[in-house]
Amino acid sequence: MPEDFFQCRRKVLICESAREVSLQRKYQNQKLRYSAQKKDQSVDVDFTD
Q1: Is the dihedral of CA 41, 36, 26, 24 positive or negative?
Q2: 30: how many CB neighbours lie within 10 A of its CB?
C-alpha cells in the first residue's frame, strides 16, 4: 500500500468523525428545542397562526 493511501484514509476518517459530531450536536439541539416546545404547550401558548 502506498503511504499517501493511509494519509488519505486518515483524512476521510477525521472528516467522518467530525461530521458525526456535528450531527450529534444538531440532534441534541433539536431535542432541546423539542422539550422547550413541549413546555410552551403545557402553558397553552399557541405560536402556530
Answers
A1: negative
A2: 10
- Over the stretch 2-48, which tens digit does the pLDDT of each residue have? 778 788 888 888 888 888 989 889 888 888 888 877 776 665 555 66
Query: Whole-angstrom distance between the N-terminal and C-terminal Cα of the chain?
Result: 61
For the chain, the residue count is 49
DSSP 2-48: -HHHHHHHHHHHHHHHHHHHHHHHHHHHHHHHHHHHHHHHHTT----
Half-sphere exposure of 41 (CA within 13 A, CB side): 7
Whether the model clears a pTM of 0.70, i.e. scores above it, the answer is no
